[in-house]
Structures are given as C-alpha cells and as structure tokens.
Amino acid sequence: MDDRISILIVEDEAILAMVVCDLLEADGYCVVGTANNGRKALDLFRQNPVDLILCDITIKGDWDGIETITQLFKLRQVPLIYLTALSDRATILRAKETLPAAYITKPFDAGQLRIAVEMALNSFSVRVLAPVSNPATKVIRLNTDPLPADKDQRTGPILRVNDALFVKQNYQFVKVPLSDVLYLEADDIYTTIVTTGKKHVVRLSLGNMLERLRASRLVRTHRSYAVNLDQIDSFSEHEAVISGHSVPLGRNYKDDFLRHFPVC
After folding, report:
1. Which pLDDT tens digit goes with each residue over 127-156?
2. Do 47 and 125 belong together in one domain?
3. Which of 236, 25, 53, 27 is nearest to 161 (CA)?
4. How far out from the chain centre does Cα 147 lie?
5. What CA–CA distance (Å, rounded) separates 112 from 179?
6. pLDDT bracket for residue 115 (50, 70, 90)
7. In the Cβ-directed half-sphere of 117, how many Cα atoms lie within 13 Å?
8. Cα 107 to Cα 20, 61, 147, distances in angstroms
9. Are 81 and 101 spatial neighbours (Cβ–Cβ below 8 Å)?
C-alpha cells in the first residue's frame, strides 16, 4: 500500500507544473497527475484517490480553475490550494466560495508551497471534524487566519480527514487509512498507532487522540489501549484479540466496550 499523500495538480504552464511536481515528490508526496484544463482534471479526480488539489485559476478549456474546483467538489471535497497570478478582489471573492485552505500568488518558492500543503491538511481536517452553522466563516488563509479551532488542533501531530488519518512525520503527513488501524497503545504522553503493516508513534496522549479523531469505531478498552472494533477477531471478559495481538479489557471500560455488541 502506498501511504503517501496523493496530490492532483491543475496547471496549464507545463514547466511550472513539472517544477511543482518535482518539489512535491522530493518532499515525499505522490502526484497522481497534472491537468491543463478542467475536464482532464475531473477525469483524473474520478480515477484516483486524491487527498489534496493544487489548482491555478487561469487554465485552458471552458472552465477556469474556480469552476473546475466547483465541478470536482460535486463528487467529493478535499483540501484545496490555489496557485495563481491573480490577486484582484473579484477573483479572491469567487475563490473564497470554494473554501480554499491557501491562496498562493505566483511567483512562489518551495518553502511557501511546503507550508501551504501542511496547513491545507490541518485546516481541512478541522473544518471536516468541527463544522459550523455557516460554512462561509471557515474560509482559510486568505490574508487572515479566521479558524476558530484551538492552536493545538491546527498544528497537531495527527489529523483525520474523512476515512483516513494523517500522521505528521518531520514536515509532512503520512496517510493511514482508518480501516488499517488495529489498535492504539499509550505510553505516557505518546501513543503508538498499530496498523496491519506499520507502527506510528505520535506525541499525544491516548485520551487526546481519541477526542481529536472522533472515530466511532475506535473504542477504549483500557487506560492504555483502544481498539478498532472492525479488526477484532475475538474477545473475552478480560481481553480482545486482534490479528494475534492480545489487548486488555479493563473493568472500567468493559461496559462501554460491550455496548457495541448488542444481544440479538
């Protein structure tokens, strides 16, 4: 399984698209494709599990970048960054309607792009997990930083976007599908995410991690453990077994755990 974050580039300047692609791949991301027009972007978006979009506003074809994003978001929403030479008020107001995580004006450097990608994943995670009654108030990083979420949540070491976790390692996030998580194991202020093939250690307590992720299938069984209910092979009065791993079932957590297994 490729656990890299997948990015779609929509840009009609071929040389710039190639440069951006090289920068992203050097940072460990996976570029699923580049499109110079909206309809090609839509095809790539349909065919690939895109985690983030970088989009120019002035592109070839009958859709500009903003209309292209509108069409893509009819299928599903993902974090969005605009890369453009346009900075007029009318364009910015149109762009804001698609709730971008960042709006970068050309020319830009690798550092700006790297920060924008990280902030896009952070801010989208906050918007998905903590929606407000008026989504328009969640416009992100267009000269201001209006996100109402606390700072720790915006800069935390782990995010959840839809059905995946994004675990921060160095300056990038590694994608971990929720379905791959077997269990979580706490060690003081650190929590290890144990998956079918890897372990990821996050500097976050187990309680804070569960509160942040809000994943209903991750259930605490002990002060130091939480399990993915979908991965359980068997359980008894004192333990749950997941892929050969025995996880304790503590007395204080037993009732809540058993609540997920109603008697037929």
Report:
1. 554 444 443 333 333 333 333 333 444 446
2. yes
3. 53
4. 16
5. 33
6. confident
7. 30
8. 12, 23, 26
9. yes
Domain assignment of residue 129, given as a range: 6-138
Q: 170 lies in a domain?
A: no
Regarding whether 187 and 125 lie in a shared domain, the answer is no
Cβ(44)–Cβ(64) below 8 Å:
no
Rounded to the nearest angstrom, the gap between the alpha carbon of residue 117 and the centroid of all alpha carbons in its chain is: 10
Strands 234-235 and 225-228: unpaired
Whole-prediction pTM: 0.61
What is the pLDDT confidence band of residue 161, given thresholds at 50, 70 and 90?
confident
H/E run at residue 8: strand 6-10
Q: Per-residue DSSP letters for 177-189?
A: EGGGEEEEEEETT
- Residue 26 CB contacts under 8 Å (≥ 6 apart), including other chains: none
Give the C-alpha separation, 254 to 208, whole Å: 20
